[in-house]
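Q: Structure tokens for this one, please.
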Amino acid sequence: MSDQLYTYLLQHTREPQVLRELREATNGMQGANMQVAPEQGAFMALLAELTGARRCVEVGVYTGYSSLAVALVGAACARGRPAAKKGWCGHLDAPPAASL
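A: Here is the predicted structure, written as tokens:
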């Protein structure tokens, strides 16, 4: 991935407050480098939403960041609301057509 594309990715990844708080709390723990990055959690949530996953199992959880990201998608979908529209999961903003 180019530096320009990675910068774009970081600028357009939304992170819900609860995930931000968990990430910040985990940063002070021993082994904090095992935590996934916000853009990785957003990608997992996107995959769960796109595939319509209703049950998810994650093996090897540290503090649960990615599990929570995926669970937020499930909670939004269970209420009949697409998670991306409510801003509950860390989806990427759609790039303008001109930038593709």
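A few notes: Residues 3-99 form one domain. The helical segments are 3-11, 17-27, 38-51, 65-78, 83-86.
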